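Weekly structure sync, notes
Attendees: PL (lead), two postdocs, one rotation student
Agenda item 3: pending single-chain targets
PL asked that the sequence for the first pending target be pasted directly into the notes so everyone works from the same version. It is reproduced below exactly as submitted, 171 residues in total.
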Amino acid sequence: MGRCKVCDDSMVKIPEGKYKVQFVEYETKVLIAPKAICTFRIIQPGEYLETKLSRHYNVLNHIGRPSINGDFQSGRKSDLVREYFTIFGDNADIDNIDLNKYREIIVIGKVHTVTKSSDKKEIHQALQYSVISELMPIEQDIISADRIEADMDLAVQVDPKPWSPWSGTDE
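Predicted structure, written out during the meeting:
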């Protein structure tokens, strides 16, 4: 008898919400239509630390073969361009949008659970997965990736057991 082992580790499901994320890489692909797919990792401490999620953008077309760091064209009214300008503001250049610029900063990723397929059919709950549906700037000034790494190093050094008045110690 034939058997099938389902093996796609990249599709994880986490609770919907907003998470601090750091850019990992992007690639161009054709999934029904041309896409630019940005991969981010969650960097805020907690159960989902280091979880990788993707933000998929529709693009007009690819320039050359789809690949990691591939070139593409995107419309002025696209989600990709609008989010880029929302995050980078006056530092954005309409003639030279470089997704690798996300490496320099930390952003907020709004996480959404995919419950329907591209043809609007329901996806069984066991097969649902999470994606980033929107990127937003962190409300205060844009936080540099170097500062977050330093903060994470400090967080790891702190005793993970919280102090409690019932613990019997004065620490």
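Discussion points:
- The CA atoms of residues 71 and 160 lie 44 Å apart.
- The first strand starts at residue 17 and ends at 31.
Action: rotation student to compare against the earlier draft before next sync.
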